[in-house]
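Example 3.2
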Amino acid sequence: MVFRLFRETGSAYPVVHRFTERGLRFPKRAYGGAWDGKIIWGRLSHSRVLGVLKNPSYAGMYVFGRYQYRREINLDGEVRKRMQAVAMPPGASVCRSTTRDTSRWKSS
């Protein structure tokens, strides 16, 4: 929803405003105290919107399957794991996708 609202409005502040006027909550991880490590729901802040927009993993840029792990048995009978990089398809550049028009995302 953050990305959809950002596409509609073009700025982080209207995203926060829409969440507030609709009474929507946004998840965040608690650090310390009784809720340590738990997901809690709270108000969406401007800095949180910017963090989501700038974080490539929220945009689906986290690449699953870049490495394959294979188990091999050597001549002594020991099982070993071997990691092997998998070739990325052409045009799958993370940098090109995440640097597109980031001037709108910077806070003033």
